[in-house]
Write a structure and sequence with these properties.
Layout lengths: L1 H5 L3 E2 L1 H8 L3 H10 L5 E3 L2 E5 H9 L7
Antiparallel strand pairs: 1-3, 2-3
Helix pairs in contact: 2-3
């Protein structure tokens, strides 16, 4: 298990916001809603890079 975690790259909320081109608050909303999995370290969150890539790759459905 420890070896698996060594292969995971964790990103900060700011890094995720930059990758997704959204605000930090949008990333926090995605984390709190469960749409973006995250791990809490103290008072901050870390998001696995693979989770961010999965959200970016997911097609947006038409609304309306």
């Amino acid at each position: 298990m420890a070896r698996d975690l060594a292969d995971v790259r964790f990103l900060t909320v700011g890094e995720v916001a930059e990758m997704m081109r959204v605000s930090n608050m949008t990333v926090y909303r995605l984390v709190h809603s469960g749409e973006l999995p995250a791990i809490r370290f103290g008072r901050s969150f870390r998001i696995p890079e693979t989770a961010v890539e999965a959200v970016i790759q997911t097609p947006i459905s038409d609304v309306g």
